[in-house]
Write a structure and sequence with these properties.
Blueprint (H helix, E strand, L loop, with lengths): L10 H11 L3 E2 H11 L8 H14 L2 E7 L2 E6 L1 H27 L9 H7 L13
Antiparallel strand pairs: 1-3, 2-3
């Protein structure tokens, strides 16, 4: 089944909404917040940022909160808050699944499995074939 638009947010989308969770903000404040909270890993260029802001506005996730000088401020709507919380919960489920999988991984999926032993012995699988797990 195809995903609906905005069902899962990209990293940039998530950080824009995260910035607006704190209150109204202009583009420069959103960009600075995303870079700060991500330790510099998320850098929003102007094209990306303003494309996302326009898309979020069209989707009803944010609204115009006014202009001060040449700065336009944005405000998160209830739909935007719900999108942020939904994505945060989805990401938390992914992390919980990963943690649970690390604890309960079958021996065949851990270090030293049969595929590792086969490779050590020089018995490589033919190109294009996948081992049966």
């Amino acid at each position: 089944m195809p995903k609906q638009a905005m069902e899962n947010l990209t990293e940039s989308m998530f950080y824009v909404l995260m910035a607006l969770q704190r209150g109204d903000a202009c583009g420069a404040e959103i960009t600075a917040y995303a870079a700060q909270v991500s330790g510099g890993a998320v850098r929003l260029g102007p094209a990306t940022l303003y494309t996302l802001l326009a898309r979020f506005e069209k989707e009803g996730f944010l609204t115009d909160a006014g202009t001060v000088g040449c700065k336009r401020y944005y405000r998160l709507t209830a739909a935007g808050k719900a999108a942020y919380e939904g994505e945060r919960a989805r990401l938390q489920r992914c992390l919980d699944d990963a943690a649970r999988a690390e604890i309960t991984a079958p021996a065949s999926l851990t270090k030293g499995d049969a595929r590792d032993e086969t490779a050590r012995q020089g018995n490589r699988l033919p190109s294009g074939s996948l081992p049966v797990l």
